[in-house]
Amino acid sequence: MADSRVIVNARLPQRSGLHQITVEARRISAIATQADRLPPTADSTGSEIDVQGDWISPGAIDLQINGAKGLAFPDLCIEQLDRLQDICELLWQQGVSGFCPTLVTTSLKNFHRSLKAIQAFQDHQKQHLLPNSATVLGAHLEGPFLNPAKKGAHPSEHLQPLTLEKLKRVVDKFAQTIRIITLAPEIGTETDLIPWLIEQNITVSLGHSLATEEQANKAFSQGATMVTHAFNAMPGLHHREPGLLGAALTNPSVFCGFIADGEHISKTMLDLLLRADRASSWQNSNDSDRQNQRTTTLFLVSDALSPLGLPDGVYPWDSRQIAVVNGTARLLNGTLSGTTLPLIAGAQNLVQWGLCSVEEAITLVTTTPRQAIHHPGIQIHQPAQLLRWSYRSDQLRWQWLL
């Protein structure tokens, strides 16, 4: 007899009304509106789970995370796969079901060593995915093709000029392991750079860049579809020079990641970012969309560094040190370098600060990052890795449902 459960009275992000979700053998077998409730099958022994109007979503997805539990992903080697498994379990405990280990600018040798380890770990997960463990979705290369003037905390000595020859050297035999690459489009003049990456099924994100609006739009027309940590490591919005950010926010096909720790972007600019996205999504939706829920092209990232899961303090970071205070990490010269806050903490911050609704916050960490890399969400036949969200006593809370 089938092991079946039916989740009823559930609200789903970007869908109107209440829904029921049928789960059989740990996979979603049916989704229906509450008005069209499905009776249990004759051979079902399942029980009903009434979530009483709480939100149900897939697990969170982190597309930019640099390390955790003392391990920086650029330092990862094949002998440390047990530590990567520990990180997968930590992230699951933080509500994350999938992530892209992010390799910041480093040497070619380090890139390839880390990519080899990630490739081996992905192969292992495909055969032996452990329960209560986040899935590695592929690597995010944040560099080395960045504008030196906007390198932020990236080491200058490992930055490279953007040419097709150098790009192919970095990607090498790891095209299937690399999910995202962040680059500055203005430092490359060859017209086949981004199209070549798209042919390899690598998502192109623009960041650490001084690109003008024209340069950004050209990159978007060539296939770039993302922006890395909006506002950070790029010029701010200017009334005569919209730049990369202005071009991205007015393009409905471009997804923008951002950090909500209250330090990387001020609350006022976070408010502006969210308002601009709402206006853009409404303008670009049709009447059918408006009868349901609006879409968004924003998503949250943790940009977490290796001290994620460790207390505040001073930690090594490549050949330098970072100081972590209240979850925000900086080089000792004060340069922002990332966070040690869990991804979902950003969503909770936005709700607590009154900047977005509960549904928007959930969407920013679960639905939109999936859409940005074409990763499935709550769909029939997908694993039932589901979060239950509630908002009570002015607190956004979550728990794994199944």
Could you characterize what this model shows?
This protein has two domains: 4-53, Urease, subunit C, domain 1 (Roll), CATH 2.30.40; 58-375, Metal-dependent hydrolases (TIM Barrel, Alpha-Beta Barrel), CATH 3.20.20. It is 28% helix and 26% strand. The chain has ten helices and 22 strands. The chain starts with a strand and ends with a strand.
**Any guess at the CATH architecture of the largest domain?**
Alpha-Beta Barrel
Q: How many structural units, i.e. domains?
A: 2
Distance between the termini: 19 Å
Q: Looking at CATH, which topology of the largest domain would you report?
A: TIM Barrel
What general outline do the C-alpha atoms trace? Answer: globular
pLDDT < 50 stretches:
none
What's the CATH C level of the largest domain?
Alpha Beta
Q: How much beta, percentage-wise?
A: 25-35%
Query: How many beta-strand elements?
Result: 22
Q: At the fourth CATH level, what is the homologous superfamily of the largest domain?
A: Metal-dependent hydrolases
Radius of gyration: 21 Å
